[in-house]
Amino acid sequence: MRTSVLLTIINQTRVNRLPAALQAGQWLRMRFFCINSLGLMVWVMCVTLPRIGLAENFLDPAKVLPENMQLHGFMSQAFFNSSDNNVYGQSADGISPGLTEIGLNLNYQPLNNLRFAAQGLYRRAGDVDPGSLRLDYGLADLTLIDYGNSLLGLRAGRVKIPYGLYNETRDVAFTHPTILLPQGIYFDRSRSLMLSADGGSLYAEQRTGLGDIKFKFNVGMPSDDLNEIKTIVLGTNKANGSFSTKPAIVTQLSYEHNNGEFIFAVSYMDLKGASKNPPMLK
Amino acid sequence: MLKSGRFAPIVWFVIVAGSLLTSLPKSVFAVEVVVNKSVPVSTFSLEDLQAVFSMQKRNWSKHRQIKVFILPESSQTHQDFVKHGLRMFSHQIRRIWDRMIYSGSGAPPVELSSEKEMINKIANTPDAIGYLSAKPDNENIRVINYH
Q1: Separation of alpha carbons B101 and B93, rounded Å
Q2: Strands B67-70 and B128-132, how do they pair?
Q3: Residues of A in contact with B103 (CB under 8 A)
Q4: How many Cβ pairs within 8 Å bridge chains A and B?
Q5: What is the CATH number that goes with domain B32-146?
Q6: pLDDT tens string A226-260
Q7: B62 contacts in chain A (CB < 8 Å)
Q8: The pairing of beta strand A248-257 with beta strand A211-222
Q9: Integer angstrom CA distances of residue B92 from A15, B6, B33, B55, B134
Q10: What's the CA gap between A57 and A17, in Å, rounded?
Q11: Which of A1, A99, A105, B97 could crosslink A119 through cysteines, CB 3.0-4.6 Å?
Q12: By the 8 A CB rule, do A50 and A121 touch?
């Protein structure tokens, strides 16, 4: 279990008042400013407590679980302080504890070439998400070819979307270098579309003396629970109506030099969401 | 010409930092990569070793999955192994494992609490690999050389 406390102090330019209809989306616009002032962010992260004293004796997963099973988790709580505008709650002239993320995952490998993995995630994010639990991924991973330096496999179930460098672990703060990811790539206003998709993924890896080449081709149905879009367009996540999504294609080709010291990736993503019963205010 | 007043602090910093760095005692690298005697490999390249510990090379041969064991990040043996054995940064390999764990794409090595447990595991687990600060006196454990 990894525990992190995230502290962010944001010094930002004041954003002018937005039209009333976009009020709730205001904080999203502000986050662009946060990113612009990354240099001013002060953050402390990853207070790792690999094993708490008690856990050593009673709850140590290595001693309770069978050898082919692994349990991992993390917990992170952010505190924001900003100079003018609010981020995840009342952060201007105060400290907002509006972002909490807790995850727990289980990995089970019954056969040499077959693995099952699932992760549950709890997230609370300002007014947009008052606290919700979801299955982040839940998949079966079958290795088709594993020979020499080549690997080919298939994943089926709910699979994370391989987009950019950090999308697959976007809700796990210590896996990316900044607390808030750049909004130009990792959109938060439509994040539900980008989290994971129910379908399958074909993946291939080739290790060479000059670096590793990895390829992923995913097809699946993204979540249609698009609360962020509803909140931004209508100003509340309690509006009636719903969205529907279409099967999406996401593919990524990446090259990693010297075990990820340098990573270059090209991703392509085609996601579509439409309103099924146009959302409207109650 | 350098304006000595302006650059003097920098020059001093370089001199002091440089002399401090070169006078630091060199860490004594004493980590042995060990395997269970059943492992069908005798010579190893550095790339192979990195691929095994970053969980990208998963099998010794068909149907023989590599069982990878590590020590806690806080242990000196682990730090020495990652730095001098794998020639990687500790955070670099941690990031590879974290990305696998939290994206569902793989499982990291099994972490053991002490070298005593490591000796026990390597000796009793077929196809196991790990590392120790010294070569153990155990007939089921073999030291692997790599370059």
Answers
A1: 12
A2: parallel
A3: 137, 160, 168-169
A4: 87
A5: 3.40.190.10
A6: 778 777 777 777 777 778 889 999 999 999 998 88
A7: 147
A8: antiparallel
A9: 38, 38, 19, 13, 25
A10: 55
A11: A105
A12: no
